[in-house]
Amino acid sequence: MNILHLDSGLFLEQSVSRKLSQQIVSRITAEQDQVVYRDLVTDAIPHLDAETLLAAQQPLTQTLLDELFAADVIVIGAPMYNFTIPTQLKAWLDRVLKAGVTFNYTEKGPVGLLQGKKVYIASGRGGIYSTGDAAAMDHQESYLRQALGFIGITDVQVIRAEGVNMGDEPRQQALQAADEAIAALA
Predict the structure, then answer these.
(1) Does 123 show up as a binding residue in the annotation?
(2) Long-range contacts of 102-109 (CB under 8 A, 24+ apart)
């Protein structure tokens, strides 16, 4: 199995999403598996500009696409910043959501070209956004599901630790719940 592991948490040592994504990779990886790791913070992808978007061939974009196409499983460490994903993860998505490559426009609408891949999202959140009134502010997990679904990846499982900035007890409960969800992965 080929695993693509992406991290986008800004706080390298303290990042909850990085901790969770590493736990997920450790849990699902067998000895013979290949893991490609890409740290989107320490090795940032330049933001998309018109020249890059219109270029017929762009080596970095091709490398990112090759990694994505080769992966059977993608693990994404995705913290919530200001109700959405980090800009570094958005830069990666801007490179791999590519018409004619990862999706096609058809008379019946867009069709994703990446079928049969599994995604685990390691989601870290300071507050609680999965339920209650704050759920309307979740543009992190919902955006990732929509973007991945657009390119044909619909098998998405979120492992979430939320409320980690609401005090020591809620933080420990959130991390414990995430640890239990990871332990239950097949």
Answers:
(1) no
(2) 102/65, 102/68, 102/151, 102/152, 103/150, 103/151, 103/152
d(CA 19, CA 29) in angstroms, rounded, equals 16
Torsion sign (Cα): 102, 158, 175, 134: positive
Residue 83 labelled as part of a binding site: yes
Give pLDDT, residue 57: 82
Confidence of residue 5 (pLDDT cuts 50, 70, 90): very high
Arithmetic mean of pLDDT over the chain = 96
Residue 170 CB neighbour total at 10 angstroms:
15
By percentage, how much of the chain surpasses pLDDT 90? 94
Among 34, 113, 106, smallest CA distance to 69 is for: 113
Q: What tens digit of pLDDT does each residue of 97-109 get?
A: 999 999 999 999 9
Rounded to an integer, what is the distance from CA 12 to the centroid of its chain? 16
Please check if 166 is assigned to a binding site: no
Q: Is 120 annotated as a binding residue?
A: no
- The alpha-helical segments, DSSP class H, found in 97-167 are 141-150
Neighbour-count burial of 36, counting CB atoms closer than 10 A to its CB (0-12 exposed, 13-18 middle, 19+ buried)? middle
142 is in an annotated binding site: no
Domains for the chain: give ranges and CATH numbers: 2-183 (3.40.50.360)
Other C-beta atoms closer than 10 Å to the C-beta of 186 total 4
103 is in an annotated binding site: no
